[in-house]
Amino acid sequence: MEFLVIQTLNGLSYGLLLFLLSAGLTLIFSMMGVLNFAHASFYMVGAYFGYQFTRWLGFWPALVVAPLAVGVIGMLVERYGLRRVHRHGHVAELLFTFGLAYLVDEAVHLVWGRAAVEYAVPPALDGPLFTVFGSSFPAYRGFMAAVAITMLAAIYLGLTRTRVGLVIQAALTHPQTVEALGHNVPRVFMLTFGGGSALAALAGAVGGPAFVTDPGMAAAIGPIVFVIVVVGGMGSLAGAFLASLLIGLLQTFSVALDWSLGGLLGPLGVAAAEGTLLAEVLNLTLAQAAPMLPYLIMVLMLVVRPRGLLGTRTT
Fold it and tell me: Which residues does 172 contact at the CB level (< 8 Å), separation at least 6?
């Protein structure tokens, strides 16, 4: 019971952080139809900006300043980059964001180096939040979950209860009609791209102290974000939320379990000769296979339900 409760809490906190990161990509794709390959790079920049602004201003101001700064960068990228290549089609947009990811990666290397930086948990949150069956749940993980839930509520209320949110939703499907009503649709696109980038940066600024802040963090988490978007359904925030929790719980539990097919089938008399490929497969533990499980789920989802859990977009 102790293992189940603690791992579930860890999985939920990690899944909520993944949602905070994938929500921005989902918003950008919903409105612009662009799969932003540089989205994880904004996550990395958010972590490094959070680290830098923490040194200058303190942790709490950095949580506000870092996402805003990255959001402004995202708006500039859309205004002077994506908007110019949009007329050439989606392939040009994908190539642009793909190249941008490499440029951001090299810029991080030049400014902060190739080693990990010491982006530490603030003293106020460096301790247990509560204890369950003798195991402590870190206060910072609870803070991560609280930030993600707050942003989830803010996104929902912003899109459904405000005039700006209604304009954004209308621009998703009827941009020409929205423009005919006097709204500046290109500006809406720019603000949406900047907002999605800021969400990614907030995930980096919050997740940086909990995980390693180094130049490889974008490459490590970027593919997982695309898995979440595909599994949840392209353009569906609710689907991204469910997929984030699913992937977060799956990875958290799988890395902590040493189950194997050999161990499960051994009592049934199923065995393979030592040194054979079958024996290696049977002895492969769940913890060893954990990194590929999200991609396996994505492949199965594409085969069984290509539009994802709650997706409606087909193009």
Answer: 30, 31
What is the chain's length? 315
Residue whose entry in the numeric block shows the structure tokens 């050439």 = 88
> How many Cβ atoms sit within 10 Å of the Cβ of residue 294?
22
Q: How far is 255 from 164, CA to CA, in rounded Å?
A: 42
Output phi, psi for 152, to 5 deg.
-60, -45
Residue 111: half-sphere exposure toward Cβ, Cα within 13 Å: 14
Side-chain-side CA neighbours of residue 285 (13 Å): 9
The structure tokens listed for 304 are: 């069984």
Give the count of beta carbons closer than 10 Å to the beta carbon of residue 106: 11
For residues 161-190, one letter each, b for 16 or more C-beta atoms within 10 angstroms of the residue's C-beta and e for the rest, the string is: eeeeeeebebbbeebeebeeeebebeebbb
Asked if the model's pLDDT at residue 196 lies above 50, the reply is yes
Nearest-angstrom CA–CA distance, 208 and 201: 10
Token pair recorded at residue 229: 């978007």
Residue type, 53: F
Give residue-wise pLDDT tens across range 61-119.
999 999 999 999 999 999 999 888 877 877 888 899 999 999 999 999 999 999 999 99
Distance from C-alpha of 44 to C-alpha of 205, rounded to nearest angstrom: 8
